[in-house]
Amino acid sequence: MDGVTALLTDELLHMTSLQVGSATSLLQFALLPIAKVLVLCGFGLAMATPYINILTAPSRRVLSKLVFSLFLPCLIFTQLGTAISFQKIFLWWFIPVNIVIGAVLGCTLGYLMALLVRPPPQFFNFFVIMVGIGNIGNIPLVIIGAICRPDDNPFGQDSETCNSEGVAYISFGQWVGAVIVYTFVFHVLAPPKDANRESSPEIDIKVESISPDHIDDANGFSQTNFLPDNFQKEDSISVPLLLPQSSDTLPKVSGRWLENIFQPPVVASLLALVMGSVPVLRNLMFEEHSIFFFFYDSLNMVGGAMIPCIMLVLGGNLVGGPGSSHLGLRSTIAITITRLFLMPPIGLAVVLMADRLGFLPPNNKMFRFVLLLQQSMPTSILAGAVTNLRGHAEKEASAILFWEHILAVFSLAFWLFLYTKILF
């Protein structure tokens, strides 16, 4: 009897140690990518302080344009091109569908929350986007890399196979995310119509000498009628500097809709789909020792700059501190809680329903895990980059992303633990 008791005790201790070790590993997986994000943002914040003053506001704007026009297209082309094939398009079709469903449900939930919370009118659309558009790229990639690194990972695969499979699934979904961000989000986050008027600088015009007796003979009235009664000689008048209206705020003619849709990341996604799906083109570009592999390798190096540059820009936008946002505490809390704690259960229900309907590949736990990750992330960092491109709500976006990534340490630990319990 004592032997049986001792055996049960040892087994219980062993199971407890496994659970503690599993919980510790999950916490590490959740903490590692968030820590990397915060460190990179910290560098951007330091570079933007008055003491260093390298990453100034104009510099951040230029860097955002580089990310949009060069770094992100290169990253999408290289990752998606190597991951995709004609057969995989039909096997993995639910990955982009899952992203679109998540964006639709997220924006719907964000719209309802915005009606309830009532953010400042100029940030209503911003509120909806920050809730609805999640990070489907860099943080999931880091999480997959961290989980697959040990050979005894929960997916039962060797480290290289586990990581390459997860990266392929994530890359296949990134092109849809880029299309959503740089078409729908880019349009919705347009500055309000009166933004240019409110932010127009003023210039001082110094009037050295005006004679009160000066009469315009042609019109027959005194020019001093246009001046204040208390105006004195040598005074200066501050008048608004009327800037030409930005092309972003001008009405778009119907013939330019294609130009607005086919932004550089979208074009890169389409090229990658074509070249990755056609065997002849794939062998010419993506196979090692092929004729144009040097070109692919060059694009891959350029694309590697995308994530660090976005993090530096977002960190630099925090130079006034997260409290410099004009969004308001109630709206900030509502966005953070909705994105991190209300959206994941909705995403979990979508994935479980799709699995029950037979839309997912059978017995593929990594596929399901990536789908769940897509629904559990903080707000998309690309959405923050769009605010820089648009010149509207940059500080608010940086503050939201700052607080979300702080709280994501705890939310991701909980959701990762729950997902592993469901999948394994």
UniProtKB/TrEMBL annotation:
Principal subcellular localization: membrane
InterPro entries assigned: Mem_transp_PIN-like, PILS2/6
Location within or outside the cell: Membrane
Entry keyword Lipoprotein: no
Residues passing through the membrane, by range: 34-54, 66-84, 90-116, 123-147, 167-190, 301-320, 332-354, 366-387, 399-418
Bilayer topology: Multi-pass membrane protein
Pfam family, one: Mem_trans
Top-level taxonomic group: Eukaryota
Alphabetic keyword roster: Auxin signaling pathway, Membrane, Transmembrane, Transmembrane helix
Protein name: PIN-like protein
